[in-house]
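Question (not urgent): is this output format expected?
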Amino acid sequence: MPLEKACLFPTNKNEINSMNPFAKFWLGVRLYGKALAFTRKHNLWKYYFLPALLNVIIFVSVGIVGFYFVNDTIDWLEGLFRLDNPVNWWQTALSYIVAILVSIIAFLIYFKSYKYLMLILLAPVLSIVAAKVQEILHPERPNEDFHFPQFLHDLKRGLIINLTNLAIELSITIPLILIGLFFSPVSPFTTVLIILVESYFLGFGMIDLRNEFMKLDVQESRATVKKHRPFAVGVGMTMYFMIWIPILGILFAPIWACISAGLGIYELEENSIIKAEN
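Got this back:
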């Protein structure tokens, strides 16, 4: 067992091989702490600046667009239904309901837009981080020089995966949102399901950065993530909630998720190989 692996993962081979879904999920959560330790040990701080800066720009830009979208949409709907100057209680109540519904829908659109813009636009810089992590974990692999055609191929590959994931995610979450809106008693359950789905695809995007380094094609990458769904949810859910921590989340959530995904999927896949060979 490599020294690096032994230092990072106190669990033994048998424990990893027998991991239940919750254990895989928890691995995805707790590795965020390991990501910070890994950064310190290998002095990866220089890789933090660009992803942090770009993520702040994306987050703020989408937020500004969303702010004006909400205000303009509310004004348009109030004018359409003559609610801009309410004259009785029901018009006032309806005005508040319209504002709340528009705000909820706008928030969902905002977060989904931010998430996929982040996954797509940060992919080139996060792939550098993912590659560095895997180079440390796989010292036997020769370092590869930068090749622009390969870079374009990786961009195209990432775009295909993320847009496909967006379509799949929307096909699941939109019905859940509608069910929650029209059948309020089940809205707590649909909310949990939506968070799980969102988290899975966030984790998927982070794990795929490692898969890209390993030269897995789209189908192979999907198969790898599906094999470790609970881990993907753990990585994604931690990032999902971490993003909303002021300053800290926006600056560090994507890169910590990238490092955590790389460390965890390495451990899971490495032990899968060992298990198959025994």
